[in-house]
Amino acid sequence: MSQLDFIAILKKEFYMTKWDDCQRALGIFFANKALLEQAFAHSSYLNENPEFTLPSNERLEFLGDAILDFIVAERLYRGLSELPEGELTEIRASLVCRETLAKMASSLKLGDWLLLGRGEEANGGRTRQSNLANVMEALIGAIYLDQGLAKAKGFVLKQLE
Question: pLDDT for 97-129, tens place per residue?
């Protein structure tokens, strides 16, 4: 075995352990671990790591945003039946805004798992509110695709408590 082969094996083992640790921290275990990795893949990482074969988290973020809106809207609709549509909309907007999502992501330490390019890393990308909000939405999308709406709903509502 060459030194490069040995380094590749060590790198792969470290990488797999990283995602196992992430799943344990989240309390969610993915059948398709590629979805978990993709949820944390910032576009800057892909630009600097052409060997990384997954897309960035942007499409998962798009899906997660829609699922989050649905879950929160349904909860508000059922739980606050006395409120008119306008007030429900205001409450929903405050719950799914960037600031709230970034706080949720921070409490879960999602920034620790982000895959970032060197520039993004050097400029505080792990704590940047936009990155944290985006990874939160991408994670919700990944949970939905991997485990369905019920699991995604449970995850979201637990974080909003």
Answer: 999 999 999 999 999 999 999 999 999 999 999
0.70 exceeded by pTM: yes
What is the spatial distance between Cα 36 and Cα 43, in angstroms, rounded to a whole number? 15
How far apart are the C-alpha atoms of 1 and 102, rounded to whole Å?
Answer: 45
Integer Cα distance of 160 and 89 in angstroms:
16
- In the annotation, is 137 catalytic? yes
Residue 62 tokens read as 């798009």
- Pick the catalytic residue from 37, 61, 65, 146: 65
Nearest partner of 38 among 8, 9, 69, 59, judged by Cα: 59
Query: Is 48 considered catalytic here?
Result: no
Annotated active-site residue in 61, 120, 137, 146: 137
